[in-house]
Amino acid sequence: MSGQIIFIVWRESVEALLVVGILNAWLQHNASDSGARRYLWGGVAAGIAVAFVIAYVIFNLAASLPPDALDYFMVAMMLIATILIMQMVFWMRTHGCQLKQHLEQGLGAAVAHKRWWGIFMLAMIAVAREGSETVVFVYGLLSSARNDGMLQITAAIALGFAIAVATYGLLQLGGRYLSWRLFFKFTEIMLLLLGCALAVSAAGKLILLGILPFTSVIWNTGWLLDDGSRLGGVISALTGYRSAPDLVVLAVWVIYWGAILFVTRLQQMRIRLN
Amino acid sequence: MKPSTIITMSATLGFFVIFSLPVQAQTIPTFKISMNNGVVTPARLEVPKDVNVKLVVTNKGSATAEFESKMLHIEKIVAAGATVTLTLRGLKAGSYEFVDEFTEDKKTAHGFIIAK
């Protein structure tokens, strides 16, 4: 489970570093003497603060709920995290390539009119977006499996961020060792698999709550990879794999990957039409 | 009172009534499973299919255990000496593996629930 958290924090932090890096580099070149960068770093700090407030609200809300209501809250958070992962992947597919251009346009307009708070807002929204996504994903993941201690969770978050800084450094070397394209391609697939794992866990919780029924096992691939084994357990936590899926799990797989295939097709059609 | 106020109040009341209702426990067949430092007992437990059954899982061991079954969608930490109760609502006929996840390398940590 820590692996999931490390991965999510890693990917989200790299995204945030990318955005802040673009903003900082542009300001350094185009408005280095204006003091605009103070607004940039103010915005970054405010964005981090927003993410912490959201985390505080979610965890306090969860702590105040009675056990029965908490179960439903956790399932809801898992489903929200799943949908958010899908939304994020599709958003990055369409906007990722123009991200730099959009950010620089926003900065250009703000600097031209000396609207320094515009820079502040731009940085705050970008960082708050990645930060709040991270919070929702991490809470969804914590809901989907047993909770390790607070210490392990904090360590996983810190490790994810440290790897992100190193990865960002590698990526900035100009694609000699690791290209942005490869990074986004790889993490996109990992994210979609993780979304599937969350969806399967959420369905399992709904079965235990009596909202979805127990159904018969459809097949058993335990001879190939047993989800009760150590390796199988890690793989099922990261991908939603089950060696003995019942009808509900199978339905989740079909609906989840069907939806992704459908939206992917839709996006490709729209690109071709434009 | 405005209609919207009445709706909000009755919805709030309904919410509290639903969540404070006592669970009807008397009629549900109950089965016990114990985990003791990597040994689950019984290793084979028969339960009736298609009805609600209750599992009372006790950790008699000295270390924290985790009652896990991917097939039953259960993942539950049980502290040393603690007991947790799980309700299985209408299990289909079949054999469902469960394990004390923290001692999964031991053969004795694995068991089966047979619904028939």
The secondary structure category of chain A is: mainly alpha
Distance between the termini of chain B: 55 Å
**Tertiary shape of chain B:** elongated
The biggest beta sheet of chain B reads: 5 strands, mixed
Brief characterization of the structure:
The complex is a heterodimer of chains A (274) and B (116). With 274 residues, chain A is an all-alpha fold. Chain A contains nine helices and no strands.
Describe what you observe in this structure:
The complex is a heterodimer of chains A (274) and B (116). With 274 residues, chain A is mainly alpha-helical. Chain A has one domain (2-273). Chain A has nine helices and no strands. Chain A is globular, with a radius of gyration of 21 Å. Chain B is an alpha+beta fold. Chain B is built from one helix and nine strands; from the N terminus they run αβββββββββ. Chain B has one helix spanning 3-20; strands at 30-36, 39-41, 44-47, 52-59, 65-69, 74-78, 83-89, 94-100, 110-115. Chains A and B meet through helix 7 and helix 8 of A and strand 6, strand 7 and strand 8 of B.
